Structure prediction request, 483 residues.
Amino acid sequence: MGAFWGKLSENRCGVLPPKQEMNMKKLLIHGGLVVTGNHVAQYDIVVAGERIHSLGVAGEFSPDDFDETFDATRLVVMPGLVEPHVHFDAPFMGGTTDHDMLTGTKACAYGGITSVISFSNQPKGASLVQNVKDWDEKNRGRAYIDWSMHSLVYDASEQTLADIPELVKMGVPTYKCFTTYRHSERLLDDDSMLLVLRATADSGGMLMIHCEHDATCEYLTRKAITEGHTDWIYHARTRPARAEDIAIQRVVDLLKTVPAPVYIVHASTAGSVRIIANAQEEGLTVRAETCTHYLTLTEELLKGENGYLYICSPPLRTERDIEHLWNAARLGPIEVVSSDDAGLPGEMRKQLAQGRFDKVPSGMPGVEPRLTLLYSEGVKKNRVDFPKLVELTSANPARLFGLNHKGSLEPGSDADIVLFDPNVEWTMSASTLHMNTNFCPFEGKRVAGKVKTLLCRGEVVLRDFELAGSPSHGRRVFRKLER
Ligand SMILES: [Zn+2]
Prediction:
């Protein structure tokens, strides 16, 4: 018995308070195989109002005592997924991403996600704090599930450095910067990075970092264009694995001057996980995620006529990288798998690209397929077990991003619960998914497993594979990081 279940049994009670005394809706999920980040067992779960009330041995509770019961026989019951990396409603190179809060959280629900964190893009120079307030206002009543946001940091101006502790106080303790995109004024140089790291360490925040070495990518891109190489595959060749590895190593080296919590977004190379593991061994607080597409797709897709649809940054890599990333997800240092959902309509991408790899707005949709793909490619292929899948998609992102009542089935946690049917086999396609796009990067792929029912704070969001929730249910979660 792990600590989790030791604690659980203390809180467990076979006898429920009478219905009238509880004065809140009571639900029972019975007969399922319960999977958490460190355990698999047959348990029945009692939900009272918005929280998990207790867990008991199968058959312990009488269905008559509940307002509603869910038969989870032959289903897997796990904590609702936490998706910490999407770009909803993001302006990009003259377009806007496929999903906004309404369509994005709907797609999330079908993917078993009960909390999502998106980036609140602000124009350069604008107040980070005001932008968060604007997002709160704009997204009220437009989320099927709970949500939060990360800010974006483009500079280390006085305004930005003053905004960072304010963001932390507002429950938005994470924000991302870039080591690339100098051309669009988003690159944070070393001088600025050190100042932002200092502000992060002082305020209790965590800096997320997009790592690609800008000079390497820019040099190779200019060279390719000059030599007349404009095909989609040159996106991968001009943003090579070593550009990512250089940038991550640089961040690690800067942390030796200013130690602060950092989170490397979308690590995609075999080398990146080695560098991060070494940094952790030295005691530096570097955490890392990879994304579903880096675990399942390769750069070969960029060689096709429709290669522009698969352009993302960092680019898709090779089979060898995929195997290293799965190992790192199983054994560390990868702690989270996100989707980095950031597609733009295909037609718009084609128009903006004008046949040139370097003009394509990068990013792919992927918020809905994440759980099914990780089950099909990970659990079914014995690359990770089910508890590890829950850690990577739910328990760890909840802990790292300070969603303190999420990612757990412990009594007292929010009743965010997935009833996952591992027995359904289906073909993944834009037409079988519910994302706001006609492009699916995994089109035609045979997969196993689908979310049957989803609860978010005790409310049914998905019932028998269909949307049953309301966009007035989702709330912004106030996040606070462990120090
Ligand atoms: Zn992203």
In short: The longest helix spans residues 241-255.
